[in-house]
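Deviations from the work plan: none for this task. Representative record:
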Amino acid sequence: MKISTKGRYGLRILLDLALYAKEEPRLMKDIASSQEISEKYISRLILKLNQTGLVDSFRGAKGGFMLAKPPKEISLLEIVEAMEGNIALVDCVFDKDFCPKSENCSACKVWASLNKKIRKQMKEISLKDLLKSEKNKINRL
Amino acid sequence: MKISTKGRYGLRILLDLALYAKEEPRLMKDIASSQEISEKYISRLILKLNQTGLVDSFRGAKGGFMLAKPPKEISLLEIVEAMEGNIALVDCVFDKDFCPKSENCSACKVWASLNKKIRKQMKEISLKDLLKSEKNKINRL
DNA sequence: TTTTTATACTACCATTTCAGTCAGGATTGA
DNA sequence: TCAATCCTGACTGAAATGGTAGTATAAAAA
């Protein structure tokens, strides 16, 4: 029951973009050095964010990345699911064929209900909430 | 972000005990055949449940396992943490030294807050809630 | 006290998942 | 053109996960 580094890094990448890619696209290498993640690995991670429509990418000179929508419209749920796929505490939550008795299984029902609650809470947290806390940090300096 | 089979099987073992070990201890092999888990593997899993005080074990003839406390006092959180260790979505939640800047990291704060909410919800679900749904199942037959 | 019935525990193995790298390809602006 | 920049599939080493084998230990029954 862990968030993988993919999920964690995904969040940090988006936070970085929210802070530094307001006027023009931000370079991969700038994200990489600022977040202390290798450029190679960032390129893999940001690909997913691009494919799921959370960031826009621009190639060639003056290229880079920007958020595809405003921070308040990007939820923690979207971010983690972009990076790790659907959140499914147990496989029978999304794949009904996974266990034959799932229709009638008390355990499955509990997991499904918990899964739903977790997703709901992750949906209620947006990138903007993190930005607030970043700004407080800067003000304190 | 998955519940491992350890966690899932742990729940099923406890549910099995709640249903069938009311008067006298239930044998490992009976749990195994009823839950369709190998006896060997069950023995590993139930060991943890015993060590964390969720079940009592009795050796020798007439031995077996029983719940160590009533179902309503056993939460999903206890079960999963018994089987998988503390729930920590990210390592810095429990290990403050894990990331040097954790004191001042917006991302860490978000994960910690989410972690807290998830644990709270898991604490609010008890084995008794599952039993209700099991009984409904039996009544419907 | 011996035998039988059970659980307790440690070491080990196979498979899958995860984190991260490499090398080169594709696209765009100047 | 060509330099800047992102795109992508194949690959690798390490760690976690799922599961098995075998022996030790305890309790009850004979």
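Chain B is about 55% helix and 5% strand.
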